[in-house]
Amino acid sequence: MSLFAGGAEPDREAGEHRTDLISREERSWRAPTDLYSAPVDLRSHFPVLERLSYLNAGSVGPVPREAAEAARRELADQLEQGRGGKASFEHASDLAGRLRSRVAAIMNADAGEIALTGATTDGVNTVLAGLDLGPGDEVLTTDEEHPGLLAPLGLARKRRGIEVRVVPFAEVGASAGPQTKLIACSHVSWLNGQVVDSAALGDCGVPVLLDGAQGIGAVPVDVRKLGCDFYAGSGQKWLCGPIGSGYLYVRGDRIESLHPAAPGYGSLSDPLQALELPLRDGAARFDGGFPVTHHSAWALASLDVLEAPGLDAVVGRAATLAGRLAQGLAENGLIVAPRGRSTLVSWEARDPEAAVESLLERGFGVRNLPGTSYVRASTGAWCTEDELDRLAEIAPDCAA
To answer: Which of 94, 235, 278, 308 is the most buried (most CB within 10 A)?
Structure first.
């Protein structure tokens, strides 16, 4: 079976329940044929797939065997050799530097533009706290944002007096006004997989902070083409890294004007002059504390697994599979949320929480989205066409 077998999206309509399931990009996109021979090659790295159709990387990704082994080696070394001394410090810094460079390459950024954080929300907080925003300044956001973006906005509104204006996701790029000082929104909607109109955002002339929790590792992320000033992403989701890992891109010409939200030892170029606050060069000044070696080793090993076939191939296959699942669900009578070319598929259920439990009993790990009628599946390149077709067949029975 080819990596991209069954990936072409049919042009025919899928009936009255079809609601913009396949974007124009999906229709025109054609996967390369010379990348990675079969999904089993990737699946073999994830032991959880031996017992479960894992479809929740939008929350936390599956763990590759190699990542667990890398983390164990680091912990064993700490157990046996201790955690102090110059060698340990240099080893931790080396791993962090390698990880910074690897993530920068994925995002088409310079290594000096990447901060290592603990989560997407850490990056959002760093940006909002570091900008000179005050009373009367407006931050524009959308009606499809995750609490991890909304909570930092709520604090900025309460403590700093900013105005937060909420607009429809599809209209955010055209909604900036004279008082808009920042647009803060998702690259990919966590609710339904719609992809933001980055061209419209780039044309509005306002600084842009993208929440990339459902972006990096799931869809192509080129910060130069996106035209964003800041991009906050997760390590534990589509990059299959540890919980407590994240990445923040700060465009080079924005670094000096962004104040560190929580400076510490690692923020400084000269810790002996800490009170004078001599900051490190580049976005490393925004790092979230001292690097954790077993986290860095885990993240690097996961990237090795995902990049072995080429990350473009992994990302492309995952999105194509999501389109296939959306098509199948609609053909089986379910109402699928409008979506873009992404890895998320959401559909309506009478009792989403019960539907998730029922699907888990049948071997499918998905999630419900609190406060909505949606069940959401996150498709990775490790999925197979057969298991997604099976999910599309049984999901209606679990949604009634």
So the answer is: 235
